């Protein structure tokens, strides 16, 4: 049984929404954020990416950056650009891009449910990023971004959401800089709030898509706040909850997350291809056009400005008893990146980079022109694979999933 909780969101006035909302902190570089702020000085990037507001040569501690974020957030409140809701509400958040559309409930979730394993993870967190998020939450006294969460589809919940969309007025309707249309509705009627809470009691598990670090940080802040307040009812405080957008699983869109390697560890291209041929069928693409795989256990590779298609010929790799070892990201790591390229820890190594999202082919081509030696393209991890791993308390390899589109930050902020 999952608990959902309405909250008094701090959110932009409608006339400011298109210039305040921004991409999440972890998909925007410091320079990219600084460039956006030159055009839109009130972009929420100055809260979620505070380092973009100080000179590039100035490196502040996580606590120092969090203080800047808090000051910038308070400035938006003081100027009435962002205003807190008068009463606790749920919200509906819909994103549309081309033919794709997803619609979810914006709510607060309980840290207690996360600790009990009802909100399931599939990703290992990085301690440094987690510590930065803890500082950010503690100092700003806010959760400034929503986690993206999905659940096994429930027709009752989806019908309720569709009904509310049909009878309520939009509070936001704008196209963001990534070309996604964002529409939001507010639910503040007690009877509907109670009905939604009851409906989610029939949902036994939630699955984290994006937001592993934010949720783990929220759990740590809850513990710290409970100790400091010496409260035996710490779980009742607002600090014991974090904001999330809940999406049915059939509306989740996962794209491939591709690997870029800086060098081939002393191999000549011919020698490297020979090594690959022991476990993969290697086919040269006569058109030499970028290749994105069409199915599981298939890979694209660019080596020495030539594109290849790789297919697994070792059936033992496909039929591994471990569901994690069967993942394409695991096969690539365990059979090529680790043994041949000597990159053991992909999450920490400087020899490897990752690219996901839309327009990926142009990004890959740009990196190849800039000196990347090898590119591997992957078929997307499936929603079912994510759920199976999470249900079995497994952890996927780093950068296994790219969920698209990204939730906008700065639309719904949870204060405590």
Number of helices: 14
The structure class reads alpha+beta
Give the proportion of residues in helices.
25-40%
Distance between the ends? 24 Å
Task: Point out poorly predicted stretches.
Answer: none
Shape: globular
Largest sheet: 9 strands, mixed
**How many strand units?**
21
Strand content: 15-25%
Compute the average pLDDT. Answer: 94
Gyration radius (Cα, Å) is: 22 Å
Concise summary:
The protein is of the alpha+beta class and 416 residues long.
What does it look like?
The protein is α+β, with helices and mostly antiparallel strands and 416 residues long. It is built from 14 helices and 21 strands. The chain has helices spanning 17-20, 30-39, 45-48, 62-78, 111-115, 127-140, 155-167, 190-200, 212-229, 269-276, 315-318, 328-337, 360-369, 383-391, and strands at 4-5, 10-12, 82-84, 90-97, 100-110, 119-120, 142-143, 147-151, 170-175, 181-187, 206-210, 241-248, 254-255, 257-261, 280-284, 298-303, 306-312, 352-356, 374-378, 402-403, 414-415. Helix 4 packs parallel to helix 6 (127-140) and helix 6 packs across helix 9. The radius of gyration is 22 Å and the shape is globular.
């Amino acid at each position: 049984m999952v608990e959902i909780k309405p909250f008094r969101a701090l959110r932009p006035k409608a006339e400011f929404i298109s210039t305040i909302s921004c991409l999440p902190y972890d998909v925007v570089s410091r320079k990219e954020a600084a460039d956006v702020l030159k055009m839109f000085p009130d972009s929420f990037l100055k809260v979620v990416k505070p380092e973009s507001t100080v000179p590039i040569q100035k490196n502040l501690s996580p606590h120092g950056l969090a203080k800047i974020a808090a000051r910038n957030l308070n400035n938006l409140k003081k100027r009435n650009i962002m205003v807190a809701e008068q009463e606790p509400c749920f919200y509906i958040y819909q994103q549309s891009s081309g033919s794709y559309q997803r619609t979810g409930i914006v709510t607060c979730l309980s840290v207690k449910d996360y600790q009990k394993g009802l909100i399931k993870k599939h990703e290992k967190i990085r301690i440094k990023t987690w510590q930065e998020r803890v500082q950010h939450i503690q100092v700003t006294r806010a959760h400034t971004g929503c986690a993206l969460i999905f659940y096994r589809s429930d027709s009752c919940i989806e019908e309720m959401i569709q009904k509310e969309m049909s009878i309520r007025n939009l509070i936001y309707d704008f196209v963001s800089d990534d070309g996604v249309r964002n529409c939001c509705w507010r639910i503040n009627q007690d009877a509907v709030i109670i009905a939604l809470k009851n409906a989610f009691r029939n949902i036994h598990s939630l699955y984290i898509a994006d937001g592993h670090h934010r949720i783990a940080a929220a759990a740590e802040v809850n513990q710290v706040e409970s100790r400091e307040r010496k409260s035996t009812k710490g779980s009742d405080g607002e600090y014991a909850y974090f904001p999330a957008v809940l999406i049915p699983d059939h509306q989740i869109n996962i794209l491939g997350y591709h690997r870029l390697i800086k060098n081939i560890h002393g191999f000549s291209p011919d020698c490297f291809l020979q090594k690959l041929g022991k476990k993969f069928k290697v086919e040269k693409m006569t058109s030499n056009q970028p290749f994105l795989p069409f199915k599981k256990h298939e890979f694209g590779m660019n080596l020495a400005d030539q594109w290849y298609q790789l297919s697994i010929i070792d059936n033992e790799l496909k039929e591994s008893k471990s569901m994690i070892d069967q993942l394409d990201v695991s096969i690539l790591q365990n059979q090529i990146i680790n043994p041949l390229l000597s990159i053991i820890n992909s999450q920490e190594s400087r020899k490897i980079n990752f690219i996901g999202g839309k327009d990926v082919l142009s990004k890959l081509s740009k990196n190849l022109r800039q000196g990347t030696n090898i590119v591997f393209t992957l078929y997307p991890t499936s929603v079912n694979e994510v759920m199976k791993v999470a249900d079995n308390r497994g952890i996927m390899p780093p950068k296994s999933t790219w969920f698209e589109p990204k939730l906008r930050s700065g639309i719904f902020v949870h204060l405590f």
